[in-house]
Amino acid sequence: MGADHAKIIAEDLPGAQLQIVCDMDVARAQGLADRYGAVDVAIHPDSVIARDDVDAVIVASPDFTHTPLSLACIKAGKRVLCEKPLSQLPDECLAVMAAEQASGAKHVMLGFMRRYDQSYIEMKQALVGGTLGRALMMHNFHRNVETPAADFTGAMAITNSAPHEFDVVRHVLGTEYASITAFQPQRSDALVAPVIMVLETTDGHLVTIEINNNAAYGYDVRGELVGESGTIATNTVAYSRTDMKLSSSTRYETDWRGRYHAAYVRQNRDFQAFVETGKFPDIASDCWDGYCAATVAQAGVEALVSGMKTQVEMAPKPEFYA
Amino acid sequence: MGADHAKIIAEDLPGAQLQIVCDMDVARAQGLADRYGAVDVAIHPDSVIARDDVDAVIVASPDFTHTPLSLACIKAGKRVLCEKPLSQLPDECLAVMAAEQASGAKHVMLGFMRRYDQSYIEMKQALVGGTLGRALMMHNFHRNVETPAADFTGAMAITNSAPHEFDVVRHVLGTEYASITAFQPQRSDALVAPVIMVLETTDGHLVTIEINNNAAYGYDVRGELVGESGTIATNTVAYSRTDMKLSSSTRYETDWRGRYHAAYVRQNRDFQAFVETGKFPDIASDCWDGYCAATVAQAGVEALVSGMKTQVEMAPKPEFYA
Amino acid sequence: MGADHAKIIAEDLPGAQLQIVCDMDVARAQGLADRYGAVDVAIHPDSVIARDDVDAVIVASPDFTHTPLSLACIKAGKRVLCEKPLSQLPDECLAVMAAEQASGAKHVMLGFMRRYDQSYIEMKQALVGGTLGRALMMHNFHRNVETPAADFTGAMAITNSAPHEFDVVRHVLGTEYASITAFQPQRSDALVAPVIMVLETTDGHLVTIEINNNAAYGYDVRGELVGESGTIATNTVAYSRTDMKLSSSTRYETDWRGRYHAAYVRQNRDFQAFVETGKFPDIASDCWDGYCAATVAQAGVEALVSGMKTQVEMAPKPEFYA
Amino acid sequence: MGADHAKIIAEDLPGAQLQIVCDMDVARAQGLADRYGAVDVAIHPDSVIARDDVDAVIVASPDFTHTPLSLACIKAGKRVLCEKPLSQLPDECLAVMAAEQASGAKHVMLGFMRRYDQSYIEMKQALVGGTLGRALMMHNFHRNVETPAADFTGAMAITNSAPHEFDVVRHVLGTEYASITAFQPQRSDALVAPVIMVLETTDGHLVTIEINNNAAYGYDVRGELVGESGTIATNTVAYSRTDMKLSSSTRYETDWRGRYHAAYVRQNRDFQAFVETGKFPDIASDCWDGYCAATVAQAGVEALVSGMKTQVEMAPKPEFYA
Ligand SMILES: [Mg+2]
Ligand SMILES: [Mg+2]
Ligand SMILES: [Mg+2]
Ligand SMILES: [Mg+2]
């Protein structure tokens, strides 16, 4: 995602300058810098965060670095767009929240870009607009062609893939999770089987999530919000339809890049506005959202292991994140 | 179509008895008779029409026999469901009309089954219901996988395929044709190229019809009625959708049998009611409709040859067919 | 459904004769008999079943009568098409199975008409055909405009509505259920809330079922079979599409009658063939299927009450039903 | 469109600077300049074109100014993105072509943004890729909610609306027009009726175009390319689907802005690259394309008036535009 962010900064964010590309692989950093007009490259993120010619930071490094880098940005007083997760450990998320609160201002925006996807925007608008009646359920299907790694597990489906659903569902419904139950079917091969989760919210909604990391047929993310008087569902976007050989067909994307490109651009523009104005964007995810995603994912893994409905135990929400 | 009609009588028309199967090929007749429980077989249609144990006749023989067989049925006082066309010659149609009028009652129902297709029924209902506003245009696409014969011509597309559109459009719009213009693109092979027709009606509508007898990709019939305040289009019926190999697809039929099976059943039930009650069905095609289809087809062939807009010259409509 | 069956016999089953209409309300019985040409009416079903001029019976009476009437038919040696459920009590189903086995031949066909719906037929064909790979999951959504009665409960959603899904999923997947878990969201009014069930099969599939009896927006039944290499989903059948007021729309049915009319006709034709040949139809539901539906429904109610995953305990399958 | 271009420059074209906003209404110019960060405003375009701090020009002024402003840009050696039409008069287009050829390099890119729309891009790719076989026909429907002015005429539909189709069809098919025939149905009110055109190309394709400026129901542009072995059609893009009140629906746009926003951005980025590199973009429209659109539109108006098929007489294509 680092290269994608560099490209978006260079091509879609007039007024933003890709200043430094930081990567342990300096040749790769230089390649990106050359392609997208960065001023400099670096290996050590801490020194980058400290530089005077750096106003803001985008973190797209390995997951375990998200917390320390976010903390460093807060300490340096720099705004940071951190790819999800903030951390897979709720306690680490709480630590970032504590630092952020101590700093007196929000610094961290999380890369839950689904909130900026037009389908979910229309879904939330419909719910807020009232025509669907009160929300009852939200059904979610998240399907990838194949896992990035052969040793991907069901637990990783919950901690690495499902957080996009955990976050966008909370965002659309405006609620928190109370419990989670998890199920898995059996595959005939060694690939990771899908995970199906059923979540109850504190407002009495039901949420179902299918994570199918080896769906084979395409990259396909679907959601349906069921209200008391109607439903709204994401619609697969296709620009053309082909009729051939007794079949009428549209195409799926192979991964999330094409599907969510416009969402990434919107998100990053909102981050740019955050950097310029200091006002945290209305629909962006903050550290509390990152904490919630980590907490429900942790409960989800426990539920998968135990086979039991598992409560989602959350710290009280600080006024700071209200 | 004869076998299809025999099957429909046997399987979908309780109260009707397939009495006699008449075919020049007596073995084929006997096969159908055995399969669908007919009482007898015959070679000569005239003697069949005359039999006392025959109440009604379905004509699905070669086109050139439609007029003489219809005339024989009228003469014998038997109701007949005659496959389209009544004749390709308007004068022959007028002759049947004259005989029918002389007999004092309608005897001939034409097999323009599209009128009984649910899509067109909903289209006509929407127009009559008024929500679309006044009709402005109707667009029609009639596509077959391939022609029945290699020597099929553009003129045959107009005289043999287009009459289904000629009839159902008149039926839906409730109007007559004033002029027809015809065009053909060029194919890269020896197959018959599509024909595109533009028709003006006496009520100021425009009608476009594409006949594409070698569309290759599937059997596909589409229509769209454009009104002053909205449109209604036929929707391709599919019972399932398959997601495979980066594609989401539904299937086309290979020919009209599957696509219009329900329409044939409805049509033949209406014919049965006509036989039983003597009341000509509200939506069925009669000899006047057959005459209109033949007249516009004849003008269409002339238009194709001349490359000019051609007037559709019609005899006055007898009160009998009002 | 009794009137629907009478109509189907009269209009769609040549060779079948609606002999007697039996109803506690004799005026209603006479009305149906007159409309559909029945020979006689009756109040007491036992005497009807015993009559010599009755070859076969269709049971569409209140649910609690299904077991005794099926037993009476078995005893009388008459084939019976019994609307679902055979019974809501597994023990009653076992009793009918015992009687049927003692009689030496299958007599009871259950009215799980979904098996005859074109969408499910194509789904099963795709699975058997192998292109989807091994089945992993089946997702099901069953939505009614509103409940028949105001005092409808979540338990009734499981025992009265879900059996259609319980049966057709078993049929498509060719498996039995191992466990069931049930959830309910909260509504803002007094209407029954939806029920979501997650079932594990003995072959390692996962099945989700949403029963939403007050979905408000339309009668809408959906299913998706997810295989290891692709998916197949039911497609909503619509014959026309309307463009008006910035919207492109198709219509939903208001209830199951329109949606499943063709399935009922196919099912009843298969019953007619069963009566005529004595050969139990390949895809029809038998008493074992009725027992399975009752057993999983009972476990489902227990799961809804307890909030726990509940095992589906089944008697061994008799060789007779293999 | 001027404000839209200013917005795109400011928001979507990093590296481009909105330098001067030129408008006869200086207050409007100042408003745009303030909103999008322009350096200056002006009333007289000639002086703007001449300024040293102006590298390139976007012309979105009234149609009759397109030719003189394009000529001024060529004379000043500045690249210009000129909204369609270059001129409605073929002779004016030829004059611009002459000036451009005399200058030795292409200066003018025309704003036929449809070429940059993803649907048409996929259509052209499919045709070039060969899977559809040779192109036979292209059907086009261009529908607006309502005309901008009450006195809009059928001739204006051809000269002002249809050029988008004239251009994109030539672009997709890679051909020129040979003849055009035009038809109009009658409306029941004073609004301009739709125009239907049938065009033959020099390569034997047929093209149909419906321009319906008062379609009422939505902004809806459709196209279908029919090849010898299959077809590809534009698909209506919708991000969500709503189920309410027995209807399943998606939304139409109200005008072209939303529908073609991404196409405008792509087009203007290509213009930016043209300005920076001097290399005319592969898929952009040039003055020859503008001449072709004007010529066929002129023939189309003549065809509408005469009711006759009208030849499209074109000057020979200069090597310069090959
Ligand atoms: Mg993300
Ligand atoms: Mg016919
Ligand atoms: Mg049933
Ligand atoms: Mg334009």
Helix content of chain A: 25-40%
Please mark out the parts of chain A with pLDDT under 50 across 5 or more consecutive residues, or reply none: none
State the CATH class of the largest domain in chain A.
Alpha Beta
As laid out across the biggest beta sheet of chain A, the strand order is 11-10-6-9-8-7-14
* Structural class by SSE content of chain A: alpha/beta
Return the string of H and E elements of chain A.
Answer: HEHEHEHEHEHEHHEEEEEEEHHHE
Task: Output the radius of gyration of chain A.
Answer: 20 Å
| Ligand inventory | magnesium ion
- Largest sheet, strands/sense/barrel of chain A: 7 strands, mixed
Largest interface (CB within 8 Å) is between: A-C, 37 and 37 residues
Number of helices of chain A: 11
Q: What is the assembly state of the chains in this entry?
A: homotetramer
Structural domain tally of chain A: 2
What is the CATH fold-level name of the largest domain in chain A? Dihydrodipicolinate Reductase, domain 2
Give the terminus-to-terminus CA distance of chain A.
30 Å
- Could you say what the CATH architecture of the largest domain in chain A is? 2-Layer Sandwich
Number of strands of chain A: 14
The average pLDDT of chain A is: 97
Proportion of beta-strand residues of chain A? 15-25%
Pfam families (chains A, B, C, D): GFO_IDH_MocA (PF01408), GFO_IDH_MocA_C3 (PF22725)
InterPro entries (chains A, B, C, D): Gfo/Idh/MocA-like_OxRdtase_N, GFO_IDH_MocA-like_dom, NAD(P)-bd_dom_sf
Domain GFO/IDH/MocA-like oxidoreductase (chains A, B, C, D): 121-232
Organism (chains A, B, C, D): Flavimaricola marinus
